Structure formats: C-alpha cells, structure tokens
Amino acid sequence: MSSILESSKQSFFPAMTKIVGTLGSKSRSVEVISSCLKAGMSVARFDFSWGDIDYHQGTLENLKLAVKSTKKLCAVMLDTVGPELQVVNKSEHSISLEADAFVVLTPDQDQEASPQLLPINFGGLAKAVKPGDTIFIGRYLFTGSETTSVSLEVSEVKGDDVVCVIKNSATLSGSLFTLHMSQIRIDLPTLTDADKEVLSTWGVRNNIDFLSLSCTRHADDVRHAREFLSKLGDLNQTQIFAKIENVEGLNNFDEILQESDGIILSRGNLGIDLPPEKVFLFQKAALYKCNMAGKAAVVTRVVDSMTDNLRPTRAEATDVANAVLDGSDAILLGAETLRGLYPVETITMVGKICAEAEKVYNQDLYYKKTVKFVGEPMTHLESIASSAVRAAVKVKASVIIVFTSSGRAARLIAKYKPSMPVLSVVIPRLKTNQLRWSFTGAFEARQSLIVRGLFPMLADPRHPAESTSATNESVLKVALDYGKVSGVIKSHDRVVICQKLGDASVIKIIELED
Question: Contact at 8 Å (CB) between 154 and 173?
Fold first, then answer.
C-alpha cells in the first residue's frame, strides 16, 4: 500500500506498452508532433475517414521533420475507411434531433440534411433493415455521451427510404457522422475502391508500415488486402492489422488472427454490436489469443473524456491499466489526439498508467502459461526465445539485446513479455533488383514500434547478422552504448544477448564493468 504513494520514476522509455496516436487538426504541427513523440507516441495513425490525400501528406511531412529533430523513430499506420456508412451533411450546420420524433434516412445525397431528413452514402439500407432494428448515429463514432450520438429505431421502410423513431435527444455537429447498425450485415467490400486509390498513391509514396483494415469480417478480407499490397512495390512488406468492429468479425476471429499480422479491437463499434456486459469478455479472450499467437494486439477507445478534459475518469484510468494487465501491446488514441484539446497530455497520462500497470504485471504466470500453450517439441527459434527470457529473469538482467534481420526473433522474445526492455538491433540486408542496390531493415525496425517491450535500433549495414564474432562485438558495443546513454543499462548490470553465430543461435549473459 505504501508504494502507491511513492512518486513514479521517469525512465527513458515512458512505458513498455506502445501508444498509437491519430494525427489530425489538433496534432499536425511539427511542435505538437515532436511533443507527442517525446511523450511516448511510437506509431502515427492517419485516418482516411476524413481529410484528403494532400491534407494527410502535409501532416506526414511534419511528422518526418519531428522525427528528425527528436531523433525518435515513428511508424506510420494508414487506417482505411472500409464499408463505413456516413450521414452526408454538406452545409455542416448542427442538426438537433428530438426524442420520439421521426427522421427519414434517404440514399438521395442531393437532399439537404435536416432534423427530419438525413441523406446517407449507401443505397442498400432499405434492403438491409426491418422494423424494430436499431441504428446508431454519431460523430467520429460514439463517445458514449448521449448528447452527441443518437439511437434510432426503424419504424418502417418506404421504397429506398427508412423511417425511424428517435430514441434520445441529441445535437449532431460537423460534416461527418458515422452510422452503425447493430448486428446487421452491410453488403459492401472491406477494401473499397477509394481505399485502393489511397493505398496505391499515398500508401506507396510513403512506404506505410501498417495497414489498419477497417471492419474486417472474414479471413478473406485480409487475404484480398495482402494480395492487393503485394502488387504495390515495397508495400508487400506492410503489415496488416485486422480491425475487429462487429459480431461478424468476432465470429471469425480465429481465422482472421491466423491471416493477419496483428489485431485492433475497435471497442467503439464493438460496444454497440455487443451487449455492454459482454465487451470485457471479448477483450480478455481476444487479447489472450493474440498473446499466444505472438501477434500484436491494440486496444482502442480508452480515455474518451480526455478529448475535452485534462484528467481521465477513474473508470478510464482503470480501463487503461486493465488493458495492459490483459496483455495489450499498444493503446490506440483516436479523437483524443486527433481533435482533442490535450493530445500531448493524453499520451503522457496513458504512458504513466501503462508504466504503473506493467510494474504489477504477473510475468511469471504469463511465461508459464505461454510455454504450456506452445507445448513440446518447440521450434528451434521458439526454444531460443523462451530460454533468453527465462535467463534474463533469472539473472535479473536490465535488458535483452537481440540481433535480427527479419525482426522475427525479436518478436518471439517479446511474445514472452519479459519485464525488461528488449533492444532489437536490426541488421540491414543488401538486396538488388539488377538495377540498383537497396537495404532492408527500416520496415522491420519500425514495425517493432507497436510491439510491447520491443525497442528497435538500426545497425550499420557493414555488419552482417550472421558474421564473425569480431564484427558482432562492434555492433554489440554500439547497442550497449545506446543502452547506457538511454539510462537502461548501468555499470555492473547484467545483459542477455541473443544472436546467430554461423548456423547456431547463441544466448550470452554478460556483466558490465564500470
């Protein structure tokens, strides 16, 4: 109990859990992005549900400048629009809806939005719904605050129009509100033509690290996206994170997890598709499955109230900590950093809560569970990774250093969630297309920025990963110096090193002198 009152010590890495920040109107200047990086943001998310390519390109150029000035790596995530239904409010006037009144949803987008009529961007709504169905409308999804989002009940279907009863009074403001129908299938492709256009222009130009595939419903959605990316040059290295937003995605979760590189639990939409009392169960089950598969899991919608306030609610603070204790790799901030008043403070606060939760995380129990789940015989790499973590825990090492070129070894070590940071030294590999030379490694380094406890650094390309001990020693020296400068390694500390020597994988324990 007394430790609760002790002030938290600041370390070089704000937390082992990563923070994904959505960049937008309140967080696109070089100054604010620099502060976000210093506060602990390691992945920048670009949400194409709003804003055009030029707008996002401007933000990204500022991110590059911020990365240069702060010397902090940051990965780029592109979030697709997907089959998102939207109310089109061309005039951008606020629309006040009164409880118990009627409102008509129409696919005729030339109409003006009003309290009696809301034009939408989908022609098949009348065929998808029946009287008694529930439809939710809100800005940037639903904050849970019933003054900015509205619940409608379908009363009747007239041709292409849908007549609804308004269940609660609310004011909708801005040009964009999303529409969500509880447990109703929308017959639209997951990767739309607009998404493909953005990927083949903005995505290719900027070599995006992650694709967040909105509204993933089947493993086929991920396969189609991967097939599309494979034709776009370097984007064949882009990792696909499936965003689970509805019951259909939940029902096919195991197959989707197998196909994707990671999972985003979109709790905003899921909280509407699922009964509220079931949301926590899905979160715990999904995070457990991701952890055992060794794939990154990201939780969204954690501190909504910080969009307008400097402090989270007690429930939100507890929620962030529970996401960490449940095994989440990263916390994704949406509206909080996109249009919130306190983007930097939000990242700082979430980082502090994560760091406190990590101190009480039961690594020992988790390790045993994971080893048991993997079973025997283990693969060669899995055995090395689990042994490196066990050795680090036993000798109380301050850091694990792993040499890797594909990033796989580092991710496997991170899968066992060691209590100390894992420094992943990414050794670039030279490749050629007969016309020019290029190095691999930058993608691999940035893609570990979403994995809990994994901190990448790029090695000098003159040092191959599977080389003589002499060159490895010099790379190791660089890694140790980096650890010392960042304050992770002090004199007399023990360090566990995992590397390849020829065909053999070696785990070394070294103790540092003064």
Answer: no
Q: How many CB atoms lie within 10 A of CB 268?
A: 21
Q: Map tokens 């940071």 to a residue.
A: 421
What's the token pair of residue 260? 């994707």
Measured over the CA atoms of residue 374, residue 377, residue 380 and residue 386, the dihedral's sign is positive
Q: 381: helix, coil or strand?
A: helix
Q: By CB neighbour count within 10 A (0-12 exposed, 13-18 middle, 19+ buried), where does 308 fall?
A: middle
How far is CA 198 from each of CA 78, 81, 220, 311, rounded to the nearest angstrom? 9, 10, 21, 36
CA-to-CA separations, 110 to 87, 90, 272, 418, in angstroms, rounded: 12, 9, 29, 57
Tokens for 317? 């603070």
What Rg do the C-alpha atoms of the chain give, in angstroms?
24
Cβ distance 242 to 249 under 8 Å? yes
Alpha-carbon distance of 130 to 31, in angstroms, equals 50
Q: Tokens representing 379?
A: 């693969």
Residue range 204-243, pLDDT digits in tens: 999 999 999 999 999 999 999 999 999 998 899 999 999 9
Distance CA 303, CA 346 (A): 8
Q: What is the 8-class DSSP label of residue 201?
A: I
The amino acid that residue 112 corresponds to is E
The whole-angstrom distance between residue 226's C-alpha and the CA centroid of its chain comes to 18
DSSP 3-state of 125: helix
* Residue 258: per-residue pLDDT: 97
Does 439 score more than 80 pLDDT?
A: no
Provide φ and ψ at 97, rounded to 5°. Answer: -110, 130
CA distance 347 to 15: 11
Tokens of 174: 């801005």
b vs e for 142-158, b when ≥16 Cβ sit within 10 Å of the residue's Cβ?
A: bbeeeebbbbbebeebe
User: What distance in Å separates the CA atoms of residue 213 and residue 78, rounded to the nearest whole number?
Assistant: 9
C-alpha span between 442 and 423 (Å, rounded): 15
- E-only strand ranges, 303-345: 330-333
- Dist CA 105 CA 87 (whole Å): 9
**pLDDT higher at 14 or 141:** 14
Average pLDDT over residues 458-469: 61
| Alpha-helical segments (H) within 210-266 | 219-230, 247-251, 253-259
Distance CA 498, CA 417 (A): 16
pLDDT tens per residue, range 119-160: 998 888 888 888 998 888 876 555 555 567 888 999 999 999
Question: pLDDT exceeding 70 applies to what percent of the chain?
Answer: 94
Q: How many other C-beta atoms can be found within 10 angstroms of the C-beta atom of residue 482? A: 16
Displacement of CA 78 from its chain's centroid (Å): 10
CA atoms of 132 and 323, how far apart (whole Å): 35
